[in-house]
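Last lecture ended with a question: if I hand you only a sequence, what can you say about the shape of the protein? Today we answer it with a concrete record. The protein is MFS transporter. Below, first the input exactly as provided, then the predicted structure, then a couple of comments.
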Amino acid sequence: MYKAQTWLSFNFFAFFFSWGVFLPYWTAWLISSKGVTIESASAIIAAGLFIRSFSTVFIFPTLSMKLSIGSLTKLFPILSTLLLFLFIPLSSFHTIMAAMILFSLIYPLILPLTESIGTMMMQSERIQYGKSRSWGSIGYAAALVAVGAVTAYFGDTAIVYVMIFGCALMLGAAFYFTPASLKKRSERHSVPFRSLFQSKRFVIAMIVSICIQGAHASYYSYGFIYLQDLGVSNTWGGIILNIAVVSEILFFSIADRLLKRSRISSMFLASAAASVIRWTLLFLFPNVAVYAASQTLHAMTFALAHFAFIRLLYEEFDGYEIPAAQGLYASLSMGLGSSLLTIAGGYLYKEEPGLAFLGMTFALIPAIVLTFYLKKKFEAPVL
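The predicted structure:
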């Protein structure tokens, strides 16, 4: 169990290090290194998110039925690293868009893959999900510091090289060790989507997650640029972004114990309420101090909602169903929903930066309504 827990922690760290480069900084890299406008960069990012929504809901579950999960832990990092190098020589909008589409077919699949492994190993290896997931947050934090330090000396053009280093970490994690339970191929030959949608709890939780996680679109795509507009240096920008990750790390380190008896609906409701507060604050108070303080709410707006959904998967489904469920989650809540809201956020940011954040609160209204429905219809009081 100890070696399996360590391996999972290493994989979380490696992937989220790369994710900590790609998610908050790729828009800035496109603008500074490739010379595209913020509208063009938004279109490229949104296209990547849209393709990601396709690949995670179709390609990932299908491959997980044909190949062992252990094989996929090696295949996806190899292909992602090769595709990443396509970005370096390209300069036109259309060729960069093509590179983003190809990259988004493979690289984002590592997210549901790693999360699926964590959920499956909760059942097979009895690992503590929160303990290993906190190392993912540590990796994300390390990336923010690394990018801030590197770009302070070499400029935003160096972001891609930190991303390459992140891919190297993923390759190292992939070939370090593979638990025996992940080497087996699934005995099923079809993706179990029908059984997933038979669970009404899953369907409602999915819609709630789409709203809550999708509402982070402006923060992920424009948060770093917003700090630059406020006059914050790249080094300090990385430090401020890290406040969110530190709060996330602290949350995941205690979540297994603290929320052991909490209801899914209660966690979702707290997350949605915190999200409304967070995005409204950024609109009302466009200054560095408020931005930094609001970062602490990331533990609730992202981590709590994510933990609630992972708990639901653990309660609702068998191991063979989890990759498909994770694929849908990554596709819809962190792909398609974010894609649409990224486009909307781009137009709002052009009009007034604060509006890009305030606009996200409207996505939270259905999440709050559905959370009360989930609580009333599907969850008995916890004794």
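Comments.
1. Residues 2-378 form a domain with the Growth Hormone; Chain: A; fold (CATH 1.20.1250.20).
2. The first helix runs from residue 2 to 34.
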